[in-house]
């Protein structure tokens, strides 16, 4: 008799676990901005007396509900209209799909499934990451005054990023890294290398679900040769004069920490400098 009572108690405990979902369980989901995510209710089929609610955030904002008794599905925009035209509720499983997700959608979503025979609650901690920019590498290569050795100062930079790591790699070897986990900021990571080094360096920006990489071959790190374009035309001020004027433009691309100058003979005519990104 005692054994039968113990078996009955164990059966009841198992039955309760099956009927009442684990309210402490939180499922973490990581999503890229502008993608869609489906929050699975855990049901394969809704019962005839099921009532389903989806709520969002610490205020438990009601964003979707389904009632099998009244055959009703209601979707809500939210107080600030953030979910307008972006919610879809599966009428067979009660799963919720959020389209064109944004970083402001990060937070806890809760589903409550209630009927006479069961009460289930699941929570989803959704983190939405912004799409990553491609890092920009600027470089300054100069000869050492003590020897013919040439050194290169590299700077890898990104702007308006959050929850990311910026890293320098030499081949597959990690050299240095810097991380940020708060609000959007600008990040820069310097690196000193020797020009004679024939390895390829990479600057990698990553978060838990994506990455962007910029490669640099040090053998290509010397300053580029400036390109001069010209436009020469006869002067309109003197029809009898054979004088011809020329407009010259000297250009370079993808440079940082440099000065570009015009000289006439040995005399400096004009110059312009840049000390930030390429």
TrEMBL record:
InterPro entries per UniProt: Ig-like_dom, Ig-like_dom_sf, Ig-like_fold
Keyword Signal among record annotations: yes
Signal peptide start and end residues: 1-21
CDD domains, sorted: Ig
UniProtKB keywords: Signal
Residue span(s) of domain Ig-like: 135-219, 226-278
Keyword Cell membrane annotated: no
PANTHER family, alphabetized: CD48 ANTIGEN-RELATED, LFA-3
Name by which UniProt lists this protein: Ig-like domain-containing protein
């Amino acid at each position: 008799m005692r054994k039968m009572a113990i078996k009955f108690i164990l059966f009841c405990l198992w039955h309760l676990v099956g009927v009442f979902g684990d309210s402490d369980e939180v499922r973490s989901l990581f999503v890229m901005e502008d993608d869609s995510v489906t929050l699975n209710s855990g049901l394969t089929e809704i019962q005839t007396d099921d009532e389903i609610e989806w709520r969002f955030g610490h205020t438990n904002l009601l964003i979707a509900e389904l009632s099998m008794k009244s055959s009703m599905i209601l979707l809500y925009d939210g107080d600030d209209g953030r979910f307008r035209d972006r919610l879809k509720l599966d009428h067979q499983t009660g799963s919720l799909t959020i389209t064109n997700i944004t970083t402001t959608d990060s937070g806890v979503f809760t589903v409550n499934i209630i009927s006479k025979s069961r009460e289930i609650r699941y929570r989803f901690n959704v983190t939405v990451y912004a799409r990553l920019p491609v890092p920009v590498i600027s470089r300054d290569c100069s000869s050492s005054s003590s020897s013919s050795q040439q050194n290169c100062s590299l700077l890898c930079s990104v702007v308006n990023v959050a929850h990311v790591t910026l890293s320098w790699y030499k081949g597959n070897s990690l050299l240095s890294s810097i991380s940020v986990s708060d609000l959007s900021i600008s990040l820069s990571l310097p690196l000193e290398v020797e020009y004679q080094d024939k390895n390829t360096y990479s600057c990698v920006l990553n978060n838990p679900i994506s990455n962007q990489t910029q490669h640099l071959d040090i053998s290509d790190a010397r300053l580029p040769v400036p390109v001069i374009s010209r436009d020469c035309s006869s002067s309109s001020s003197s029809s009898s004069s054979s004088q011809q004027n020329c407009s010259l433009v000297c250009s370079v691309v993808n440079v940082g920490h440099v000065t570009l100058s015009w000289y006439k003979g040995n005399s400096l005519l004009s110059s312009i400098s840049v000390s930030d990104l390429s």
